[in-house]
Amino acid sequence: MEREPGAAGVRRALGRRLEAVLASRSEANAVFDILAVLQSEDQEEIQEAVRTCSRLFGALLERGELFVGQLPSEEMVMTGSQGATRKYKVWMRHRYHSCCNRLGELLGHPSFQVKELALSALLKFVQLEGAHPLEKSKWEGNYLFPRELFKLVVGGLLSPEEDQSLLLSQFREYLDYDDTRYHTMQAAVDAVARVTGQHPEVPPAFWNNAFTLLSAVSLPRREPTVSSFYVKRAVWTPLQEHRRVFQAMWLSFLKHKLPLSLYKKVLLIVHDAILPQLAQPTLMIDFLTRACDLGGALSLLALNGLFILIHKHNLEYPDFYRKLYGLLDPSVFHVKYRARFFHLADLFLSSSHLPAYLVAAFAKRLARLALTAPPEALLMVLPFICNLLRRHPACRVLVHRPHGPELDADPYDPGEEDPAQSRALESSLWELQALQRHYHPEVSKAASVINQALSMPEVSIAPLLELTAYEIFERDLKKKGPEPVPLEFIPAQGLLGRPGELCAQHFTLS
Q1: d(Cα 69, Cα 157) in Å, to the nearest integer?
Q2: Would you say residue 399 has pLDDT above 70?
Q3: Per residue in 52-107, pLDDT tens?
Q4: CA distances from 269 to 214, 296, 302, 345, 458 (A)
Q5: Among 21, 33, 255, 293, which residue's beta carbon has the most beta carbons within 10 A?
Q6: Residues 454, 356: one domain?
Q7: Where is the domain boundary, 116, 136, 156?
Q8: The dihedral of CA 190, 191, 192, 193: what is its sign?
Q9: Alpha-helix runs per DSSP H in 355-465
């Protein structure tokens, strides 16, 4: 094809070819010129070619000029004795097939503008194929979703080579349609199976793309009264079937070994975005127990999902509280997920039906760890321990032994992994008495609460979960000092006697 220089010249040349093909079947070979520009290395030329292909094959689909049915070999048809119309439709259907494949490749183009145009063109073809099916149905008027074309789209979005998060954000709007959401879930299952089968070591980019797509899928909570379809003549699939496919999609993804960063992302949403929408939530047990064995923050997040399965779906998991107990070590006061850890631990220990020995073990372990905890953590942990005693009066024996054993004779075994064998109920919370002499007055005050009868109701720890050392420091600076009294000496105005220095502004002696 002779091209005029510049993008405008390419646009005019492609426009002429487009008009020629649509005007006369004798000009059909001009399609090759249009498809050739799709292979260009120039970004603007590719964009013009994508727009032209979208208009060309969109018009041909609407006019019914593409072969309908199982596509035969091009060579067999062109050399056979079929009529000219049939040959044309088969030949043009092959060109359409080539165009779609190239558009699928362009979903991985370095230019986002090219990707976006290719995605729009393919989804336009999906809609048009739904209205003008290229496959024959056994029943007249039966709904046919262009599954193969849609698989091509989803396969391009779930690229193993590059991050497609931006393009997936563009695709997300199509998940609002009931039919595209349903077929996206089916296509995602196929894509995961194909990529994991082709790559012994699946690239991280694929897992990230897959998670981005899967986490964007959200099902309606109940059967909708009005359905929304992207493809005409669509039929609503029952919600139970949506849940079954949703479950298959997530299980096909989670059965593989994922990067640790993805385990965290999945576990953060599993309790409210995945489990409630599964047909059989208990099938998540394998993933959650595997994540629980990874340790650290991952174990805690996995316990959240297990807790839901235990309380809402009658799952038996006898090691649940033993796992939670094992997570209590000095690092819990310093990790990124400290607030979430204690929020969930408070939830897990909220039941008044827990045995006294178990609650006592948690209270004792936390009290022992509190001896080396920073003030901002102590201001949250001390009310936490007191709340445990409020919920479980049988554990108050731990504070009614004022002359109980101390460190050298404490029967409590801090190295025991099983809380039932820790002998915590035979001990006392002497650690809280020790913290009453803490250097920070607020910590000392919080630890002194056990000296009086514990009031009801519980103290909310929610405002204390995110407390930081900086906030405590700022709060202390804003406190008013004692009223001035007459002195027999001149008070110092600064660390070195200079009244204008920084130390004098905050630490002036009076």
Answers
A1: 27
A2: yes
A3: 999 999 999 999 999 998 888 888 877 777 788 999 999 999 999 999 999 999 99
A4: 11, 18, 11, 17, 29
A5: 21
A6: yes
A7: 136
A8: positive
A9: 356-370, 375-391, 430-435, 441-447
Q: What is the dihedral of CA 472, 477, 481, 487, to 10 degrees?
A: 130
In a domain, 327, yes or no: no
Block residue for tokens 């393919």: 122
Residues 116 and 1 in one domain: yes
* Token representation of residue 58: 């969109």
**The token pair that represents 347 in the structure block:** 């939830």
Same domain, 200 and 228: yes
Q: Is residue 390 domain-shared with residue 462, that is, in the same domain?
A: yes
Find, among 93, 171, 169, the residue nearest to 135 by Cα.
93
Max Cα–Cα distance, the chain, nearest Å? 121
360 shares a domain with 445: yes
Q: Is residue 217 assigned to a domain?
A: yes
Report the domain count for the chain. Answer: 4
What range defines the domain where residue 6 resides? 1-136
Give the residue from 223, 256, 289 where a domain finishes.
Answer: 256
Count of Cβ atoms closer than 10 Å to residue 415 Cβ: 5
Give the CA distances from residue 423 to residues 49, 85, 332, in Å, rounded to whole numbers and listed in that order.
Answer: 76, 89, 23
pLDDT in tens, 111-133: 999 999 999 999 999 999 998 99
Q: Which has more confidence, 482 or 383?
A: 383
| Euclidean distance between CA atoms 105 and 121, whole angstroms | 13
What tens digit of pLDDT does each residue of 339-372 get?
A: 888 998 999 999 888 999 999 999 999 999 999 9
Confidence of residue 140 (pLDDT cuts 50, 70, 90): very low
